[in-house]
Amino acid sequence: MTLNIKNIDRLCLVLVVVICVFCVAWFVNQGIRQKQQIQLDNDLITRKLHELDLAKIRSQGLRTKLSMVAEDLKVLNEKIPQTAEIGLFLKHVDTLMTSLNLVMINVQPFPAVSEKLYTRIPIQLTFKGTFMDSYRLLWKLEAMNRLLVMEKINISQSGIDEPCRVDLTANIFQRNESVMQTARKLP
Predict the structure, then answer these.
(1) Of the candidates 144, 135, 127, 134, which has an alpha carbon nearest to the alpha carbon of residue 89?
(2) Exposed e or buried b for every residue in 121-146, given b needs 16+ CB within 10 A?
(3) How confident is the model at residue 64 (pLDDT cuts 50, 70, 90)?
(4) Alpha carbons 126 and 153: distance in angstroms, whole number
(5) Which pLDDT tens digit goes with each residue over 66-75?
(6) What's the CA gap between 153 and 147, in Å, rounded?
(7) Element (H or E) spanning 76, and its range?
(8) 22 backbone φψ class: left, alpha, beta (φ>0; ψ -120 to 50)
(9) Are strands 118-129 and 113-114 parallel, antiparallel or unpaired?
(10) CA–CA separation, 137 and 96 (whole Å)
């Protein structure tokens, strides 16, 4: 078999067609691979965005819970402060007594009693006034933001037209340092 130019031309033409078909197939294959990769990347981005949205929602929930805990802690700090703040407490009691027309006779703090989580400071209050005004003072003391435990209440009256004399021991509280150290260790 002799190779003539016509056969060589045919062979070259077949070779060019095969190469062209191969190149087209290769380019189509590359296009399909890129499209699949883009689809995988889009799916990954969509999944990550969904996870990010869920994380934002969880984060917002945690922020809400944290703000609620902070508010609760603020209320607890007002009820049982880190320091006794006896002066502020006595100033508040004096303001209440003045507004209710009561007369303070005696204020006597006793030594502090240290407990595991807090320190209790007893304060004896002695004052005079009408029974209704004395009752209102006791009610306002119980309703105040500060934790106050009243004990040993003695109300006496020497005569019908005389004002009542009230002797009571009120306990105010302050947190111990060990509670603060424990709270700092919490996550």
Answers:
(1) 144
(2) bbbebebbbeeebbebbbeebeeeee
(3) very high
(4) 10
(5) 999 888 878 7
(6) 17
(7) helix 5-79
(8) alpha
(9) antiparallel
(10) 7
